[in-house]
Amino acid sequence: MTEKVCPGGFSINRKYIQDIYTERIFISSFVKRDRMTIRANNPVKSLYTMNEIIDTLQQHEEMGVTELADAIDRPQSVVHNHLATLREIEYVVKRDSKYRIGLRFLKQGEIVRNRMPLYEEGKPVVSRLASETNELITLIVEEHGQGIYLEVDQSGSEINFPAIPGTRTKLHCSAAGKTILAHLSEERVDEIIERHGLPAQTSNTITSKEALFEELEVIRERGYAYDRQEFREGMRSIAAPLFDESNEILGGLSIAGPTHRLHDERLESELPDLLLQSVNVVELNYNEPNVR
């Protein structure tokens, strides 16, 4: 059996990793987390309006009251009152007659992310992978049926990737997203599809539920997922799942790059070992934090 040296100097056997992964799949078939869609019995409608305002402002550098009211189809008086409240609690900033998102959101997001053990253990591995591969490395988690970028490192990559930590993405069209879907219950995947659909990002995106479930089965058997220009034309990626000690899916770790660099030989021969080794390091430190 061939052993390879991991980053940090220790060796690890690929078959050993694969055997562990196979055992996890067997166990996780009995231990599945069914997270039903949460709906409020008595929703506060004004919060929906405020959320629309915040989401719309995020998509623009700045907006005036009239422009924003037209964009979300709400009365100007309602929008003005919400903006005044958001400004008072320092979540938006007003300059002249325009409003923009305030930096308080940055603080809140950083606090949440920094409290996540997966981010703490994953960040150094993401950085090291980026240095070793000169490719785009991402760490994502699932929240409300979407992928959330927890960490993005493109320091050595040729790709100008538009995502930053906190950016949301569909799960069905990326390697990291598919590797997460592959380890959720079928009922949960159905809910995600019902809520978010399977929109095409490129001509290669899987848009059929039947085809997606077939792909997820292959991913479970293989142990990692591929994205062959499904998320973005000219880009490929490979991703593997991260599990906690109860075999619950934590997230996905991905290596992505342009097609001329992530050609078939590298994608199928070189990168799987490196990716699985890196996943092993994250999981070891996440599940046994006192061994370091």
UniProtKB/TrEMBL annotation:
GO terms for biological process: regulation of DNA-templated transcription. InterPro entries: ArsR-like_HTH, GAF-like_dom_sf, HTH_MetabolicPath_Reg, Tscrpt_reg_IclR_C, Tscrpt_reg_IclR_N, WH-like_DNA-bd_sf, WH_DNA-bd_sf. GO terms for molecular function: DNA binding. CDD domains: HTH_ARSR. Residues 104-288 form the IclR-ED domain. Coiled coil: none annotated. PROSITE patterns: HTH_ICLR, ICLR_ED. This is IclR family transcriptional regulator. Residues 44-103 form the HTH iclR-type domain. Keywords: DNA-binding, Transcription, Transcription regulation. Pfam families: HTH_IclR, IclR_C. Gene3D superfamilies: 3.30.450.40, Winged helix-like DNA-binding domain superfamily/Winged helix DNA-binding domain. PANTHER family: HELIX-TURN-HELIX TRANSCRIPTIONAL REGULATOR, ICLR FAMILY, HTH-TYPE TRANSCRIPTIONAL REGULATOR RV1719. The keyword Transcription regulation applies.
